[in-house]
Amino acid sequence: MLRQYELVELVKSYDPDADEDALNRAYVFAMKKHGAQLRESGDPYYSHPIEVAGILTKFKLDCSSIIAGLLHDTVEDTDTTIEEIQQLFGKQVAAIVDGVTKLAMIEQKSGSSKQAENFRKLLLAMSDDIRVLLIKLADRLHNMRTLHFCKPEKRARIAKETLDIYAPLAERIGMQEIKSELEEIAFAELHKEAHDSIVARLNFLREKDSNIVPKIIEQLQKDMEENGIKASVTGREKTPYSIWRKMQQKNASFEQLLDIMAFRICVEDIGTCYQALGVIHSKYHMIPRRFKDYISTPKPNGYKSIHTGVIGPENTRIEIQIRTFEMHEIAEKGVAAHWAYKQGQKVEGRNFRWMRELLEILEQAQNPEEFLENTKLEMYNDQVFCFTPKGDLIGLPINSTPVDFAYAVHSSVGDTCVGAKINGEIKPLRTVLQNGDQVEVLTSKAQHPSTEWERFVVTGKAKAAIRRYVRAHKRDQFIALGKDILDRQFKGEKLEFSEKALVNVMPNFEAESIDDIYAKVGEGLITGWDVLRAVYPAYKQSKLEKVVKAIKVPSLKNVLKKNKSKSEPLKIKGLVPGMAVHFAGCCHPLPGDRIVGIVTTGKGVAVHTIDCKVLEKFADEPERWLDIAWGDEAENEMHVGRLKIMLANEPGALADLSNLVARNNGNISNLNIVYRTVSYFELLVDVEVKDVKHLNDIIAALKASRVVSYVARSAQ
Ligand code: MN
Predict the structure, then answer these.
(1) Would the pTM of this model clear 0.85, i.e. be above it?
(2) What is the whole-number distance in angstroms between the Cα of residue 566 and the centre of ligand 1?
(3) Exposure pattern of 116-125 as b/e (b: 16+ CB <10 Å)?
């Protein structure tokens, strides 16, 4: 374990301005807080944060990072609060410790490693300060170094998680050294046999010629010098894990993997890299398809280097990497290297594409401390990652809600969702989800998607599902309406109505099912008459075809009942006393209209308006016509007028309509929907009024209404 003074000296060796006092206080604080807690190794727990701080000094991290490293487990594992840390060590250290603590919490929620990629993204998204992530990686590295003290069942889980999540994460931010070490320890744990056999073979090769690596290094170094190139040549055996990976990927045996040695030539600048490459390729046989130039075309993570495979010195197949010193530093230490460069000599490395923005901040920053403070990992900030109660991770676009989450889990969960618990608390469905939220969707079979949801969901999947449901649901309504319309239409014409008959006429309407026909009628795309004529082509349509037969005209008796003058005879002049009389259902005459009577068989006299189209039928029967007129007191009674209205298809429109009529002293006695489309209803409305003037007043009032797009006295 690092002693207190050793740690302080390490930090001061690269940062002379480090706050020595704060470092000392943090060291003691961690020791005190973790107190008698023990690691599984039997060591005092505080040895762990101190070792983590030690690892961080390897990357020459700033004083705040080292202090946060010392304190990183105090909030999670002791009674320490963030406020306490802020008071003692300042805002910055507190923010970093808070970040590391949050990462530890989401870690506990994660049950499966299936979604490693999502989990890595979540870690990156949550580490908005890069130092949080660096401490997390150092923490994991120390835990891996002491993995052998853990119980076996725990070991495998931690090792697998390390391979799935932390090693790729370290690679992602360019921390090559940490990545390799994490991989090697995890590999030895998870595939002990493979690991041991590869190590044994490597040892065997080494015994055959224990000096082969130094010999090749020496020869390559000489090659460079002879050509006037100042270079530093290093060489190593590849790590057991990288050999094993290659064996798996290429399905090759150990013997087939000849280039288990890799050499690296580091030079001053890019031009010299290509000079060095020329020397190698002109002296040694190049192995086809092994040449890769990542200097002219860097890897997506910003990695730069030239790779080539040759039959090298000692007639051995080797891999050679050629790069500048700076490229090397960045490849090995990644993010941390940038900081080191600022500290030391030069800042040129714009190699990490994703680091470019950070480097711009770095150039403007007055000191490294400020740089790191402003260094936000702008990664995956357009996404949030949330857990299911089982610990599965669901990645969603930013601003997603529990409804989006529900649809992401399964469309049936979305369709039936009624509410959500976020981190155990019931929250509104429109709540915006945050990274690491645990979301439990509450469902009910009785629930259906609501059009309201469309206003706040952000995922395409949720939007599409809601629209699909609403469309299907509307269709159900149209089917029911269309069936009703057809049923009445056929009955009104006294024709038999059967679904069987409809099957035969389906092609006429490009319908694939009877429901299609109903839906089309309901939506108003075809009329009941179209269907009736198709089923009974021989049926002679009456002149009244346009009248909607389904309308129930209130009997005069009922109308009169509502009026005070119910017992008095109709105030119509020109009638033979005692003669039965009724108002025609077609034109609904009102006092003020010019009227005419038609003598009918059995029903007495029917009163029509003079312009009623029905009268055409009686044109050649003048003997049935009766000249009549309204009596003086006719307007004291209520009469039924019929209006044709186009009304907006929206909630409350019908209520607005009936209110308007009532406010104008009218009374709706009957109402029938003729057509219904997505945007409007076509209605026939029977209104009890005194006379034509009264009806015209009501028409005027309706015309002024927002929800009424058309209104006129019905000509039907
Ligand atoms: Mn820890």
Answers:
(1) no
(2) 93
(3) bebbbbbbbb
